What we know:
32% of the residues lie in helices and 19% in strands. It has 16 helices and 22 strands.
Amino acid sequence: MIRKQIRNRLQNYKVSLNSPDPELPFNILTPKKVAVIGGGLAGISTACNLSERGFKVDLFEKENFLGGKVGSWTFDSNGEKLRAEHGFHGFFRQYYNLRSFLKKIGAYHHLIPIDDYVILFDKNKKQGFKGLDNTPIYNIWGLRKFGIVDWKTFLNPMALPFLNLLKFDSDTTYKKFDSESFADFARRTRMNEKMRLVFNSFSRAFFSEPEDMSMAELIKSFHFYFLSNEEGLLYDVLDDDFQLSFISYCETFLKKHNANIRYKEPVISFEKANAGFLINGEGFDYCVLCTDVKHTKQLIAGAKGFEPYPETTRKLAGLKQSGRYAVYRLWTDRFEADSTLPFFIFTDRLKCLDSVTLYHKMEKESAEWSEKNNGGIFELHSYSIPKNIMDDKELKTELLLELFHYFPELKGMHHKHEYFQHRDDFPGFHTGEHASRPEVETEVPGLYLAGDWVKMDNCAMLMEAAYTSGAMAANYIMQNEGLRTNVIESVPVKGLLA
Ligand SMILES: Cc1cc2nc3c(=O)[nH]c(=O)nc-3n(C[C@H](O)[C@H](O)[C@H](O)COP(=O)(O)OP(=O)(O)OC[C@H]3O[C@@H](n4cnc5c(N)ncnc54)[C@H](O)[C@@H]3O)c2cc1C
């Protein structure tokens, strides 16, 4: 009975954000030219949604591969050709729009479930969340058995703010909590160690230190991933390298719909001209900017003709990147001792190691390498490199030391190959940034924004935000041209007690 009421109150865990008019035409009769800048997930989403309707889409990508942070590329090492990616990605089950897209392009069958959501801590303790009740409220109450909450969590007057986790509402949550960091919130509420561990892993998934992470963004993420639906914390992963299991399907779809994919063509000149845009000197009717925060700032700094639109340029120029992060993949001659571990494990970092992915268990191509070479492929992530570590050599040494802390059996392993990335191109979700975050629609006629950093009136995050914002940008353009829009779905946009 109570479960039914929760489900009703949370609108069956799924809402449509728009109601397309079936009377309107599907295809554009006189094709308009659209420049999509940036071939990550947001750009792929925009380009696929528009080219399907007959728009003439040019997708500009500075690299020689599509996908951005979900892209993959080859490199040579010791006589072998191997693939590298930006790092492990989990496809949560509440990624309604992204998952529909995977079905549409025929890639959905590549998703395989993880066994458990596991955090390693101390020297040899592990916390899994398998078997947790999925119904919101019941799932929080179920955290009792892991020592993460108890009755005091919600009844202790110091802890009353915890109720705000159930009250997500984009207006009030950001007003109340965007200026407070997660670390300050944890201190103020005397959050217990176990709960801090769980929230820390959420905070790090946004590439932020607890001292920087906006508590409002964390409440939104807890709502999106845990408290607004019955999908639970478990998720799926792609069973093979991203190019083979995902991006190649996007390319086939785009080519089928005559989109022009312009690999290795960075946009270096961006100009508002008359009714449209000049992109690298070529004229377009519409432009959708799908670049990451770092490159968006560079592009807007050199843009011309935007003087009449100071609000958009101010917001874009003011975007913030996250801190630095590292992804270190190692092809080795050893395996982990605990064969029950899932593909992906969060670690309670000692200094910099946040997670370890066991690629030899997950991706087909990696499994083949592993079998042939009798060794595991491990990927180590640091989602927020400590400010005092600047040097790659030191960072690699620290990551390995922490790997051996959690997996002592790997000490002395030989690296047959390695691929190391030290980057700073993730958006910041830090305190005080929400008010000035730009939205999909801008004041510049014909210019739209898409990416995981764009503010939307729904609570999609990370990959789902990138895909959804691209689909929203495409919808605005379709609407402008009098076409039927595509349905966009979301978990309920307000919390149970909001
Ligand atoms: C290590 C790591 C782990 C992650 N794990 C997860 C996860 O488990 N689950 C999840 O949901 N999300 C995860 N994410 C986040 C997810 O990858 C991103 O949110 C999403 O892919 C962002 O897509 P995007 O299109 O907004 O941006 P991007 O992927 O950054 O795409 C931007 C594109 O613009 C291109 N570009 C930039 N400048 C120009 C220019 N001037 N001209 C042409 N092209 C240009 C870039 O080359 C890039 O292709 C993870 C990210 C990282 C880095």
